[in-house]
Write a structure and sequence with these properties.
By secondary structure, the protein is α/β, with parallel strands linked by helices. It contains seven helices and nine strands. Strand 8 and strand 9 form a beta hairpin. The strands form two sheets. Strands 1-4-2-6-9-8-7 form a seven-stranded mixed sheet. Strands 3-5 form a two-stranded parallel ribbon. Helix 2 crosses helix 7. It has a single domain, classed as Uracil-DNA Glycosylase, subunit E (3-Layer(aba) Sandwich), CATH 3.40.470. The chain starts with 9 loop residues before the first strand and ends with a helix.
């Protein structure tokens, strides 16, 4: 199934059926951070599996919990397992950027990940993409054909797919940049809202 995609996406069991979310939804992270020995094609899948198995003591689980809550509301009763079984998750940059998230992808890493993203979209055919992180968003807009909807949303044109996408500040952003009050309405519009 995957030729260009190096780090395989998580695709929930109910992603296709729209049981919880009204659209096939891809949550798009930026980069892979881990040790060299842990970096492999199943990295993202393993992170989600650990998270929905209630292994909530790691950085990924805190990030994944904030992502679920910004979409569904801070007080949501929908569990991590229920949410992630209805969504897909993928990191755009298909390389190990480093051990820690403070390291940044190179322009070459961004450029060399475009074909993998095209392959991903053509295979799993998301109807909505929630992009996490402003730098992620800027780099996507510079590399992917799109039609602007507003300051936070666009329609990506990828092969035969026209996909509504929007971005929020990365849920792991410190310094008060990420707030549920500011980004919850945007995330809800992207994932749960009607056609723009």
């Amino acid at each position: 199934m995957w030729d260009k995609v190096k780090v395989h996406p998580w695709v929930g069991e109910f992603y296709e059926s729209n049981e919880l979310l009204p659209y096939r939804t891809l949550v798009l992270g930026e980069s892979n951070y881990t040790t060299q020995e842990n970096f492999n094609s199943n990295l993202v899948i393993a992170c989600i599996k650990d998270h929905i198995g209630e292994n909530s003591d790691d950085n990924f689980s805190r990030f994944a919990t904030k992502t679920r809550r910004v979409i569904l509301g801070r007080e949501t009763k929908i569990s991590a397992k229920e949410f992630w079984q209805n969504a897909a998750f993928y990191n755009f940059v298909q390389y190990r950027v480093g051990d820690l998230s403070k390291q940044r992808p190179t322009q070459k890493m961004w450029d060399d990940s475009v074909q993998a993203f095209d392959e991903l979209v053509n295979n799993i055919k998301p109807e909505r993409i929630l992009v996490l992180g402003q730098e992620n968003w800027k780099n996507l807009l510079a590399r992917i054909d799109h039609q602007k909807i507003n300051d936070f949303m666009t329609k990506f044109i990828i092969g035969d797919n026209a996909v509504i996408a929007g971005f929020i500040v990365h849920p792991s952003a410190g310094g008060g940049y990420f707030t549920y009050k500011e980004y919850g309405p945007i995330a809800k519009q992207v994932v749960l809202g009607g056609n723009a």
